[in-house]
């Protein structure tokens, strides 16, 4: 695919975009080029209305809202889990909307990580998000073991991507559980989840994925691939709002397992209010809930999932790939000479929903972008992440943003800013 990077081309792409109408569903600040949907998605009108609807339910029903209204709170997590399932290739009862990535990962590890004999290790990678590593360290320590010994990490030869060979190298007969990100948060590399699951299972290893940077941007087939469990947040491409309730997947072959962390919302719903001290687990993924669901932090997802049903995840992925290719080619052709290096893999099958650029003055460049109305994402020490969101990013947005970034690099305007991250990068 060859781009001309002209305004006329951008206008034509927008005219041909079958998803362009969805842009009007989102609140987009005038004069701003929002390219941070991989960190926090924008608010949609449907999500806003869903929050207002549940507030209205609280206002009108009070405590009866648990069983009354358009979206009874008591079963809301299960209903939204069913609607999420098609996005990740899961059966309806394999998904539940609950908790956060870290809480859900603690739940899954406490359920699946049962050191036995020489199988005492957890395999991860050295590029993983810190919170996931903290969770693995905690779970190992809770088993009375030493995280410095029992947590092994696949190494990266370039500091931005992982090879399947290096991951395979750490899959020894001492490993009980493998946890990997679906998409590496720094580089945007999409890992071959199907192949990795197959290789790990051949060695008797439980496989889990953190889908934070893929759900809502990349289709999955978790059930057919045989993935044992997965966790994710819903505030990135899923547009569920800051700190919005996350989700978890647990394959149906494991639904007989008792949750490692029992909580009353994991109870069979017909038994939950018996108030017995004997735990009767729910069927399916609902058993792995812990506490009472955060209804108002879940509410936006009602509207967001309606948009996904209308647009279709495969259509969103097609546009996302085209837009990230557009950006990647621009940087390769226009900005490489300014010392900016694209670290995101080029092949469609190896790329998630964002483009990552490496530059020694990355923090200062991000500040210069913000001064021009471009909202990027900085990751220490030297990564700039840019994510067009297929729902609401237009090609004219991309064209304008790319032109501004080129001027920033040509004029070295970024040198007017300190090359240090803000408190929140």
Any overview of this molecule?
- By secondary structure, this protein is α/β, with parallel strands linked by helices.
- It folds into 2 domains: about 130 residues, Aspartate Aminotransferase, domain 1, CATH 3.90.1150.10; about 260 residues, Type I PLP-dependent aspartate aminotransferase-like (Major domain) (Aspartate Aminotransferase, domain 2), CATH 3.40.640.
- It is about 35% helix and about 10% strand.
- The protein is built from 13 helices and 13 strands.
- The strands form 3 sheets. It has a 7-stranded mixed β-sheet, sandwiched between helices.
- Helix 1 packs antiparallel against helix 13, helix 2 crosses helix 10 and helix 11 packs parallel to helix 13.
- It is globular.
Based on the model shown, name its key terms.
single chain, alpha/beta, Aspartate Aminotransferase, domain 1, Aspartate Aminotransferase, domain 2, 2 domains, seven-stranded mixed sheet, 12% strand, globular
The CATH topology of the largest domain is what? Aspartate Aminotransferase, domain 2
Q: Strand order across the biggest sheet? A: 2-8-7-6-5-3-4
Give the total of domains.
2
| Average predicted local confidence, pLDDT | 97
Instruction: Flag low-confidence runs.
Output: none
In CATH, the homologous superfamily of the largest domain goes by the name: Type I PLP-dependent aspartate aminotransferase-like (Major domain)
- Main sheet specs: 7 strands, mixed
CATH class of the largest domain: Alpha Beta
Terminal-residue CA separation: 33 Å
Strand content: 5-15%
CATH architecture of the largest domain: 3-Layer(aba) Sandwich
H and E string: HEHHEHEHHEHEHEHEEHHEEHEEEH
Question: What class would the helix/strand composition place it in?
Answer: alpha/beta
**DSSP, total strands:** 13
Tell me, briefly, the overall form. globular
Radius of gyration: 22 Å
- Helical amount among residues, as a percent range? 25-40%
């Amino acid at each position: 695919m060859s781009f001309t990077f002209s305004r006329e081309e951008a206008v034509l792409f927008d005219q041909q975009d079958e998803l362009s109408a969805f842009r009007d569903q989102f609140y987009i600040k005038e004069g701003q080029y929002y390219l941070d949907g991989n960190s926090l998605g924008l608010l949609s009108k449907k999500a806003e209305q869903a929050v207002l609807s549940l507030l209205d339910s609280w206002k009108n029903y009070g405590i009866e809202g648990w069983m009354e209204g358009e979206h009874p709170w008591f079963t809301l997590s299960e209903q939204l889990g069913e609607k999420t399932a098609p996005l990740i290739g899961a059966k309806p009862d394999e998904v539940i909307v609950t908790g956060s990535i870290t809480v859900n990962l603690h739940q899954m590890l406490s359920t699946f990580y049962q050191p036995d004999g020489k199988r005492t290790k957890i395999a991860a990678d050295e590029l993983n998000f810190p919170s996931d590593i903290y969770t693995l360290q905690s779970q190992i320590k809770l088993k009375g073991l030493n995280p410095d010994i029992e947590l092994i990490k696949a190494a990266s030869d370039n500091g931005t991507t992982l090879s399947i060979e290096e991951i395979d190298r750490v899959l020894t007969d001492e490993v009980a559980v493998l946890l990997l990100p679906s998409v590496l948060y720094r580089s945007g590399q999409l890992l071959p989840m199907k192949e990795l699951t197959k290789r790990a299972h051949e060695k008797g290893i439980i496989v889990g994925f953190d889908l934070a940077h893929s759900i809502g941007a990349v289709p999955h087939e978790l059930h057919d691939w045989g993935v044992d469990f997965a966790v994710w947040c819903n505030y990135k491409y899923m547009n569920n709002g800051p700190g919005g309730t996350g989700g978890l997947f647990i394959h149906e072959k494991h639904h007989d397992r008792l949750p490692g962390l029992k909580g009353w919302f994991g109870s069979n719903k017909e038994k939950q209010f018996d108030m017995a001290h004997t735990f009767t687990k729910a069927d399916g993924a609902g058993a792995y809930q812990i506490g009472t669901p955060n209804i108002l932090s879940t509410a936006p997802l009602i509207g967001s999932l309606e948009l996904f049903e209308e647009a279709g995840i495969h259509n969103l992925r097609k546009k996302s790939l085209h837009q990230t290719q557009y950006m990647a080619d621009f940087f390769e052709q226009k900005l490489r000479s300014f010392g900016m290096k694209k670290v995101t893999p080029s092949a469609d099958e190896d790329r998630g929903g964002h483009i990552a650029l490496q530059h020694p003055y990355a923090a200062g460049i991000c500040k210069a972008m913000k001064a021009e109305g471009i909202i990027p994402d900085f990751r220490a020490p030297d990564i700039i992440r840019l994510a067009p969101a297929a729902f609401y990013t237009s090609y004219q947005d991309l064209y304008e943003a790319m032109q501004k970034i080129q001027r920033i690099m040509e004029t070295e305007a970024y040198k007017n800013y300190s090359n240090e991250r803000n408190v929140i990068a």
